[in-house]
């Protein structure tokens, strides 16, 4: 034994080859403060030991190293520049010393080598992996960039173009791709990996390990013309893809460009300086915050699943787009699903919906023909309630009408087993209302999927007045087993997501009534605020009939602030059957292009209708549009936290991001409020207080602002 630390050990074998094996006490190896210190001590021990012939760098866990410890990041980002520089400098000196050891080095990669893990293997001369190896530099997804030499070594090893592609997308790469690109020198069977590493070290005379080092520590070999072409192309692509709200990818390209003519140590200083700049951005704090929030939400789901009954057989009532989507998602994840409707045509539609989705996956090579057949055979269409016996869970997804739902739920309860849990996929109707039709409301809750089911990550699990903990745990566990992120919320009209979405739509109605332009609002909310689509387009996707109905439910549920006076834009379009994408005409006109994708153009009919009804056109400042749209949503989100509809700011922010596509670089409503400051927000809201109760700030929020409190 050369060295034994808390997170790794170094041993020396009889053949003179040493092995540095990462084996942290937790579930994964990560480069936290403790791991870096032990690595430093291990390198010192290796430097001091004579007669070592080579070094294997390995991991005792299934994943090699998952990166720097993200849970330490927000504290790190708050450090002054000098302390951040000394952290980065120290980590880099460790990897430089590893790279400069006086004998050849090989990393053996199983599973993930991400971020700092990837930077660690880049510091060795050679890299071998097995088929499970997944290598990447995901830092830009967290709003930062590699800081332990990734922007220096990767371009020198793989070329600037490939390195920029890896770093700006943040994707990880499978073993065969890594071999093709040259980051892995070989891919071998897991059982042979170690021997292959030893053999490589014993044969290094043939492999020019010093040449490898020179390549990684010298300037990039690019002619002036090549460099100009390469960096200009990368900048163009990054600007188009990442856009102005995500500064990290372009900073990474600029860093590689600025350091292209430098050798290792000077290039590392450029990386360090630019890394520090990125830690000061609000995007970095928001994106790291999302990782932490996601961890919290997942750990809650894991805890619930521990004590839950597993769902192996599920039935879905109603074979519409949602029912078909839910049944298909369940079957894809290995839960067999019965799909019940009242006539064969409806069942056929549900099966067609599932078939459409699976065929798309087949075309994209995500599944093969066998898997497609397996999934389809796991969905059993039926007209009979008798098939519901033996089910662990029945999800009701019939039309959004309280009377019909109540009838279907009552009939269902007669047919299911004693222990079967029933869940409703209603998007707005209070669960405790629907539960009145049941004799066992404790075995009933909401399970609100979002459309399209296979793409939208969120499932709201709604606890009714009488819902039992066992019921909630089972439905949470089932949603997680279906590959979704479940978030438990308490009951009210619209639950959490729709309750906060509709005030935003009401802000939109009001802006249109005051003469704002449809496309202008969408442009500002997309480009300036960062929503994936503006409110008009979103309403066209949702459908004006659905939105009109849900707006009514919300107005009845919260008449004090959500009752709209006169006909709103949504009412007007609904009455004129301008339903949106579903019939080709809404706020926009929708037509398929040659590739079958829907494209929008202005709809003069909608514009004329609004002009005729509201009789004015007005232009608004971008900040005004943002405030008038966002304040109603933010106020409602705050109310939901105050009323315990949602348990924490972290869960609220994740529900907004996973359910509505709230701009990730803002981190969610609560992270956004913390970022801009509550006083700034209050000024924005108070300026528009005359617009009505949706714009009124709660007393508690005002109190928090007075005391400079934050949500995180
Ligand atoms: N820092 C801190 N913790 C990390 C981590 C990191 N970089 N990467 C993973 N973890 C933790 C997870 O939070 C989880 O913790 P838990 O057991 O307490 O819940 C555990 O490691 C396992 O991760 P999980 O996400 O549940 O496993 P997975 O197999 O689904 O995914 C990864 C594994 C590595 C793909 C995924 O965790 C990931 O993408 N991590 C971030 C990697 C990254 O960005 N690294 C660069 C940092 S600069």
Automatic annotation (TrEMBL):
CDD domains: crotonase-like. Its EC number is 4.2.1.17. It is an enzyme of class 4 (lyase). Pfam families: 3HCDH, 3HCDH_N, ECH_1. Keywords: Fatty acid metabolism, Isomerase, Lipid degradation, Lipid metabolism, Lyase, Multifunctional enzyme, NAD, Oxidoreductase. Residues 314-492 form the 3-hydroxyacyl-CoA dehydrogenase NAD binding domain. In the central section; belongs to the 3-hydroxyacyl-CoA dehydrogenase family. NCBIfam families: FadB (TIGR02437), PRK11730.1 (NF008727). This is enoyl-CoA hydratase. The lineage of its organism: Bacteria, Pseudomonadati, Pseudomonadota, Gammaproteobacteria, Aeromonadales.
